[in-house]
Amino acid sequence: MSAPTLERTAPDEAALQAHFNATIAADHRVEPRDWMPDGYRKTLIRQIAQHAHSEIIGMQPEGDWLLAAPSLRRKAILLAKVQDEAGHGLYLYSAAETLGADRADLTDKLIERKQKYSSIFNYPTLTYADVGVIGWLVDGAAICNQVPLCRSSYGPYARAMIRICKEESFHQRQGYELLLTMMRGTAEQRAMVQDAVDRWWWPSLMMFGPPDADSPNSAQSMAWGIKRHSNDELRQRFVDMTVPQAEVLGVTLPDPELALDLATGRYRFGAIDWDEFKRVLAGGGPCNDERIARRRAARDDNAWVTEAATAYAARHDGGRAAGEPA
Amino acid sequence: MGHEETVYEALANAHEEGHWAFGTGFDDPLAGVDTTVPDGVDHADLGAYCLMLGDDALVLAQRLTQWITNAPELEEEVAFGNIALDLLGQARLLLARAGSVDVLGRSREHATASIPDEDALAYFRDPDEFRSTALVEAPNGDFGQTIVRLLVAATVRLAVLARLRGSRDPVLAAIAAKGVNELTYHRDHAARWVLRLGDGTDESHRRAQAGVDAVWPLLADVFSPTDVERRLAAAGVAVDPAEVRAEVRDVLTTVLERATLRVPEWPADAPPRGRAGQHGPELTELLGTLQGLAREHPAATW
Predict the structure, then answer these.
(1) Which of A143, A134, A149 is nearest to A82 (CA)?
(2) If pLDDT is split at 50, 70 and 90, which confidence band does A222 have?
(3) Which domain holds residue B55?
(4) By CB count within 10 A, which of A241, B121, B195, B208 is most buried?
(5) pLDDT tens column, A48-71
(6) Would residue B301 count as lying in a domain?
(7) Can you list the residues of chain B whose pLDDT is less than 50?
(8) How far is A316 from chain B (nearest CA, A)?
(9) Tens digit of pLDDT for each residue in A163-194?
(10) From the list B11, B88, B199, which residue is nearest A75 (CB)?
């Protein structure tokens, strides 16, 4: 960098940084046109994109039951839920676009595995009870993670999260209600619910990310107001919230060490298999390839549709926008 | 207490009945609507007619749902989800109405008493008991063919429901009044895509035209009334499909011409097939997926 540039920009940058710091310190929101440090912008784009990808990939495990839902009412509930997830993906990609990212480019990065999504969606949905357990545990964990993000320092993200959390909470209750209904049903249905809980419990705990000691980016994200609570704190909240719900439901959680600590009023739980987490995150889960392949096919097989819409808009809508006669 | 804590507390109270989105029991979809069958209307005819309209909606909803997680854009995931939900809602009301006038037939022998009528009819009838037409049963094909079929099916259904708003059956009139708003959007959505595809790129034009050519022959028996439709139309309850043919043809011709697509020859009238329970293997396959789980657990409640 040459000296004249430094002279011209350095004082401005310092003032802008000071203004940004003051905004964060006062717990005010940073808005798209505000100056922000590059690291803050990049971290947000990465986090929001990862969240958007999770919504879109997350449509698949439950979407696999849309055609076979066992009653028309359940089909309608599931269809509305999967549709909500597409809507969440849209808000989140839009929030990322306010930071200068481009949706098509982010989708490409997902398909090329340059960006991640929540590894929970790499597990298969084996029975209809999985639909209920995903609502109860996976959406429940997502809510614990996401409610604090309604106070994220970045305005568009925080506002998107308020709506998303309301809808997620609706989904969680619908999932739990399905499980309650199944538990009142046949012995086979009760066995399905228990089996699904056994399979999804540990992956749900992994959704909060690695333990605080192994979470290198957390401190900076906390300082920036992008993250509000540590991974371990959120995980503990989820466990404390979920254990009583499991009791009401009449299922056991697959952890022999799970016990109420009378001194703290919180639940102690067993060790999480972080090797499995790392393996699934790195692409070695049961459904990683299938999930990405479907996104790739949706993009590639339908590229002609997008091209047609673009060509049509350029000829028609674009012509009108420029004030040319139709 | 901050907003955050309040949200957590609400979640912990998840078993409070009043907070449930859809209620924990089965909601009667016809609650609040006068379900008295008008004088002089044959119950079996009314039920059979509800199955015709209901099965069309159910089968098309299932076809559109096949696009979910596979659509060209996220906006289309949302739109197809919306349209499928609307059609599913219409199907539920129509099947419940059919059940209320006792056309359950064999389905009630297979479904346990705890299964509501709409599900007994949707999940426990065999293909030959379905009254949908080939127009909605045909496989989706590519996005172009899917959108052309949606345009055609929504245009036909909108024309029928618009007239059905004046039905002497208060339930059909209420379902039609709600459905007309929904179908107006479905038809508009499909028409906009037909314009973009027809007048987009060479490839999209070719694919849209192939879609039109594949869908047009499916119109052969759509406008041929069954005896049930004739009798009910004479009684002021149903719409004779032959009555909407000219309007449908005008609408489709207008859209296709604007989209620079060639309008194929209108197929010759054929006697009703789907409405008479005659279907191809594609319906059997579609129903196999739809019904499999429910039939595997006939004593279960969901």
Answers:
(1) A134
(2) confident
(3) 19-296
(4) B121
(5) 999 999 999 999 999 999 999 999
(6) no
(7) 1-26
(8) 9
(9) 999 999 999 999 999 999 999 999 999 999 99
(10) B88
Residue B175 covered by a domain: yes
Search chain B and give the residue with CA nearest A187.
Answer: B300
Read off the CATH number of the domain in which B286 is found. Answer: 1.20.1260.10
Q: Are B153 and B135 spatial neighbours (Cβ–Cβ below 8 Å)? A: yes
Chain B residues with beta carbon closer than 8 angstroms to that of A305:
72-73, 143-144, 197, 204
Residue B4 lies in a domain: no
Helix (H, G, I), strand (E, B) or coil at A30: strand
Output phi, psi for A259, to 5 deg: -160, 145
Give per-residue pLDDT as tens, B227-265. 999 999 999 999 999 999 999 999 999 999 999 999 999
Beta-carbon separation of B78 and A90 below 8 A: yes
Cβ–Cβ of A307/B201 closer than 8 Å?
Answer: yes
Supply the DSSP string of A163-221, one letter for each residue: HHHHHHHHHHHHHHHHHHHHHTS-HHHHHHHHHHHHHHHHHHHHTT-S-GGG-TTHHHH
Distance from CA of A129 to the nearest CA of B (A): 10
B203 contacts A307? CB cut-off 8 A: yes
Residue A132's closest chain B neighbor by CA? B302
Domain count, chain B: 1
pTM over 0.90: yes
Does residue B2 sit within a domain?
no
Contacts of A74 in chain B (CB under 8 A): 302
pLDDT-derived band at A10, boundaries 50, 70, 90: low
- Binary contact (A298, B299; C-beta < 8 A): no
Alpha-carbon span A110 to A57, nearest angstrom: 10
Spatial separation of the C-alpha atoms in residues B112 and B104, rounded to whole Å: 12
